[in-house]
Amino acid sequence: MKPSKLILTFILTASSVALLRAQSNESPYLTKSLTSENIKNVNLETSGGSLLVAGGDTNPRIEVYVRGNNNKNLSKSEIESLLNEYYDLKVEASGGTLNAKAKTKKNMNNWKNSVSISFKAYVPKNVSTNLTTSGGSIRLSNLTGEQNFTTSGGSLHVSQLTGDIKGQTSGGSIQIEDSKDKIELATSGGSIRASGCEGTIELNTSGGSLNFSDLKGTIKAVTSGGSVQGTDISGELITHTSGGSINLDRISGSLDAATSAGSAHVNMLSVDKYVKVDVSSGHADIQLPGSKGLNLNLSAQKVNADNLTNFSGTKEKDRINGKLNGGGADVDVRVSSGNINLVVK
């Protein structure tokens, strides 16, 4: 990421955090009740604020928050004057759909007249969303349905979602908790944390670390610029990094892990179909279950494996190739520049 873009990303993210803190202690500029609307779809769009959608609320409504430039507190008359002159703000609900949109008019050419417009929607649980903001964070919770959300300058925080979940940010971190089914999340400028999730999960970051725990299903987690940390994963895990180490503990199932610039530490509780670990520059510490039949194919500058029992095959300084407990799932570990330390127990 270019320095100018990195600085802009930091400013936008810091601004959205400050805005969320400010909003927690202020009253909304506008509140619209949704009690009689039976909302099934929520479409929110703003260029300079944050978005929140929370499901399962007994008092369905949408709240609009407006703050001045640099989080300046404005009177209601000042807000109305600025909105009327420089913004198009529409909040409407009909046919089970909530639409809220805030955008600047063409005559907005002075940043001193800018305001931040944020939406908070409290709706039934069975709701699908389509959310877009250029300058703030997005929060989603307790929803079932199809969720699509994008921000260019803030973080994503989602929890207790079920369904088709797709989110992207160009300038912030991602956190997802207690969600399931189909999850696809990506960021160009932050880390990703995922916990308590299940299903088909895809996590991608170009500029941060990956940290995940208690995941079940088919999981693909890739980073171009950070480390990978994972615990209590079951199913199939594919994780690659171009710029950090990999630490995986209590993994059950199949694994494909690769790093171009770090070491790998892997503890397999059980092996399903395969284990593949590829390290370009570093060492690999691998722990495998001793009761499982495995086909071992390990190569490195030096392979340390002193406690192999019930093994048939070849053992050399730089490679091991053979069957453990009669053979079974394939275990392929390759280290280009470093050692492999294998423990079977």
From TrEMBL:
InterPro entries listed in its UniProt record: Toastrack_DUF4097
Pfam families: DUF4097 (PF13349)
Keywords: Signal
Residue stretches making up the DUF4097 domain: 178-342
Leader sequence residues: 1-20
Segments forming a coiled coil: none
Name by which UniProt lists this protein: DUF4097 family beta strand repeat protein
